[in-house]
Specification:
Structural class: alpha/beta
Number of helices: 10
Strand content: 5-15%
CATH class: Alpha Beta
Strand order of the largest sheet: 1-2-3-7-6
Mean pLDDT: 95
CATH topology: Rossmann fold
Order of helices and strands: HHEHHHEHEEEHHEHEH
Oligomer: single chain
């Protein structure tokens, strides 16, 4: 097991504990997106707790903000704050670790969770970097369900028009949302073709839960000039926990004690088996 994959499974363990303790959160999407977040924060982006005010730090926006639990676990592991505090107080009264990313939490660049807003803000950040001649890159992670929001297409159009090659959007394509499959709820058909039509460079990843494939895609995105890059990452909702995988009910399901123990056992077996 490579270091990034191990890290992503350690983060899965934290997510399961956080969601179980809080009786809240969106565990299915957390588990589909965690490999993307792990690769970005521990392999790709120029970010650290020491750089929170550095004008040249990379920017990250979690547009699918309901998966804040995964982001908090990664930021805590990265050292932005005490991870145990986040795990133990997530979604509790007076906790700053609420159900969507908010800028009271160190390392969070934008209050997000109103779906469809992240890409447009990311376009603004990337455009500002061009205007100010700053070297930072902007990364946005979207859910495939939120691609039904029209503001995304305005952002896609603007990014292509301004040739924002310092912008990279990743779609967590797990094909499930709160009320069913994305195909049934609002079929957006080929997202890759839509991004290309708006002037984006597109990379499709067969296994979006594979850190090696993600690493290669982000390297290619950073090297590509003249266009923004969209990474279409084919993921599995609930990845890593057998009874959650590809199940709509785990969009925000609450675990029983037995299910919690089973989930932790499965993750630990992966970590021990390597």
């Amino acid at each position: 097991m490579d270091a990034l994959t191990r890290k992503s499974y350690e983060m899965r363990r934290d997510i399961i504990e956080m969601v179980y303790r809080s009786r809240a959160g969106h565990v299915g999407g957390d588990l589909s997106v965690i490999d993307i977040l792990t690769t970005l924060y521990f392999d790709v982006m120029n970010v650290s707790p020491q750089q929170v005010n550095d004008l040249d730090r990379d920017r990250f926006l979690l547009s699918k903000g309901h998966c804040a639990d995964a982001l908090y676990c990664v930021l805590g592991e990265k050292g932005f704050f005490n991870k145990r505090e986040a795990i133990e107080t997530f979604s509790q009264y007076q906790s700053r670790y609420i159900g969507h990313p908010n800028m009271e939490v160190p390392g969070v660049e934008m209050n997000s969770g109103s779906l469809g807003h992240g890409l447009s803000v990311g376009v603004g950040m990337a455009l500002a970097a061009k205007m100010d001649q700053r070297p930072y890159r902007t990364y946005v992670v979207l859910g495939d369900g939120e691609m039904a929001e029209g503001s995304n297409y305005e952002g896609m159009m603007a990014a292509g028009h301004y040739h924002l090659d310092n912008l990279c959007a990743t779609v967590d394509l797990n094909r499930l949302q709160i009320s069913g499959t994305t195909e049934e709820v609002m079929n957006s058909a080929s997202l890759a073709d839509k991004f290309r039509d708006f002037g984006w460079h597109v990379i499709s990843i067969e296994d979006g839960n594979n850190c090696s494939q993600l690493h290669a895609a982000y390297e290619q995105a950073a090297a590509y000039k003249g266009k923004p890059t969209a990474i279409i990452a084919n993921t599995v909702k609930g990845k890593g926990v057998s009874f959650m995988e590809n199940q709509t009910s785990w969009h925000h399901g609450v675990m029983t004690e037995e299910q919690y123990q089973q989930a932790m056992k499965e993750i630990e077996e992966v970590l021990q088996g390597e």
